[in-house]
TrEMBL record:
Descriptive protein name: Cobalamin adenosyltransferase
Highest taxon, organism lineage: Bacteria
Pfam family, one: HbpS-like
Gene3D superfamilies on file: Haem-degrading domain
PANTHER family associated with the record: PROTEIN GLCG, SLR1406 PROTEIN
Length: 131
C-alpha cells in the first residue's frame, strides 16, 4: 500500500533532487492499482508533462518495470514493439517511471516528467529511494 504520507515523502525527495539539478518537474505517485495518490507540478514545470508524469507512474506499475527499461524492448523488431499504443495510449516508453517496492514487492510507482530522460529518471530514483 502507498499512503498519502508515503507519496508526500517520495515527492519531497524528488522535488529536492529536481531543485538540485535546476529542472522543475511534474512528479506523480501511484498506488498498487496504478491509481494516482498524489501529484506535484513544480513552479515552472511544463503543463504538458503533467499527463506524462502520471502515465509514467501508471506504466511503471502496470508492467512493474522502470520505463527506461521498457523503452529498448518496445523498439521495432523487439518483443514489445507497439506496446505504447496499448491501453488507449496510456503506456509511456521513455525514462522517468520507477516501481516502488516494499519488502521486495511492487506496491506503487513514481513518474517524473519535465526534463531530459536522464533528468527524469534521476529525479524518480531520488523519490523511489525515499520510499
Amino acid at each position: 500500500m502507498v499512503t498519502l504520507a508515503d507519496a508526500r515523502r517520495v515527492i519531497a525527495a524528488a522535488e529536492q533532487k529536481a531543485g538540485e539539478i535546476g529542472q522543475p518537474m511534474n512528479i506523480a505517485v501511484a498506488d498498487a492499482g496504478g491509481n494516482l495518490v498524489a501529484h506535484v507540478r513544480m513552479d515552472g514545470a511544463w503543463m504538458g508533462s503533467v499527463d506524462i508524469s502520471i502515465k509514467k507512474a501508471w506504466t511503471s506499475r502496470a508492467f512493474d518495470i522502470a520505463t527506461k527499461d521498457l523503452a529498448p524492448l518496445s523498439q521495432p523488431g523487439k518483443d514489445f514493439f507497439g506496446i505504447h499504443a496499448s491501453n488507449d495510449g496510456r503506456v509511456m516508453i521513455f525514462a522517468g517511471g520507477i516501481p516502488l517496492k516494499r519488502d521486495g514487492q511492487v506496491v506503487g510507482a513514481i513518474g517524473v516528467s519535465g526534463g531530459s530522460g536522464k533528468q527524469d529518471h534521476e529525479v524518480a530514483e531520488a523519490g523511489a529511494k525515499a520510499f
